[in-house]
Amino acid sequence: MDWDDLKVFLAVARGESLSRAGRVLKRDAATVGRRVSKLEADLGLSLFTKSPQGYALTDAGLRLLSHAERAEQAVMSGVDELAGQSGQLSGQVRIGATDGVASFILPQVCAAIQRDHPELELQIVALPRVINLSKREADMAITVSPPQTGRITVQKITDYNLHLAASHEYLEQAAPLECLADLRNHPVVGYIQDMISYPELDFLEDLGVEKTALASNLVSVQLGLVKQGGGVGVTHDFILPSAPELKRVLTDELSIRRSFYLVRHEGDARMERFARVGEELLCGIRDEVARLEGMVGR
């Protein structure tokens, strides 16, 4: 069995389909299917159960998966070690994140990292749900809730703050807003309740309201709704410098604090590329959140 066989196996195991694996490998699905069939024939074992829903690992496939992932980490570690002799990082790192940090923090941080390492390719995957590291949707993830299971390493990055905010125009025309009880007289902008992936993002209890008048699964869309005078919404303090049309309200009544965490595959934390990018992300996100929050209220 050669390394190319294992790359094909890993792509199918993670993508759970020949077409998704083919896109990762830049090969057509038929070629990927033939490679899988040949690997199974060479081993004399069925590695996948095929169904209309896709390719699922058999018991034999699950046993091979752990060995294949260790081989992958060994190959990548070797490449990183050689590349690291120049002091420059190279290769691809895919970073998964919720859309708030992906839209308003990571662009500045990742641009700075890439300027220092021109051969590095950084990709930001913004999803309004939990990133699946085991399927390699990303190499590392920025989350608001530390996972409790899996072969992963978790590091707290920093705390961040959220407050209620509304547009200046809305506040000039709306009913008085002097305490949280007054929210019953205002439309509230927030998350779609049955699409909240992290319990830390469910703010309705903090607000003392039962439902939102306008909702989205994306922070960027919620921000747009608040900007357009759609109502009052919970907004990240680090977003406010880029939204001068908004004003924080009831800051003495409600202040929410949450945290960002860096989550990585356990083995990847020992690899030069991922270890160094991870550390630069930690410092960069921490500094950028502090910088932007420090601008609020000026």
Silhouette? elongated
Helix content: 40-55%
The parts where pLDDT drops under 50 for at least 5 residues are none
- Taking Cα atoms only, what radius of gyration do you get, to the nearest Å? 23 Å
Count every beta strand, where a strand is a DSSP E run of 2 or more residues: 11
* Helix-strand topology string: HHHEEHEHHEEEHEHEHEEEH
Keywords: DNA-binding, Transcription, Transcription regulation
Pfam families: HTH_1 (PF00126), LysR_substrate (PF03466)
GO biological process, one term: DNA-templated transcription
GO molecular function: DNA-binding transcription factor activity; sequence-specific DNA binding
Characteristic terms for this protein:
D-Maltodextrin-Binding Protein, domain 2; two-stranded antiparallel ribbon; 298 residues; transcription regulation; Arc Repressor Mutant, subunit A; nine-stranded mixed β-sheet; LysR_subst-bd; alpha/beta; 10 helices
Concise summary:
This protein has helices spanning 3-15, 18-25, 29-43, 59-84, 99-104, 106-116, 168-173, 204-207, 219-227, 272-295; strands spanning 48-51, 54-57, 91-97, 120-126, 140-143, 152-167, 188-190, 214-215, 232-236, 246-249, 256-265.
Can you give a write-up of this model?
The protein is an alpha/beta fold and 298 residues long. 41% of the residues lie in helices and 22% in strands. It folds into three domains: 3-83, Arc Repressor Mutant, subunit A (Orthogonal Bundle); 92-157 and 259-295, D-Maltodextrin-Binding Protein, domain 2 (3-Layer(aba) Sandwich); 159-258, Periplasmic binding protein-like II (D-Maltodextrin-Binding Protein, domain 2, 3-Layer(aba) Sandwich), CATH 3.40.190. It has ten helices and eleven strands. Helix 1 (3-15) packs across helix 2 (18-25) and helix 1 packs across helix 3. The radius of gyration is 23 Å and the shape is elongated. The model has no long low-confidence stretch (mean pLDDT 88). Residues 1-58 form the HTH lysR-type domain. Belongs to the LysR transcriptional regulatory family. This is HTH-type transcriptional regulator GltR.
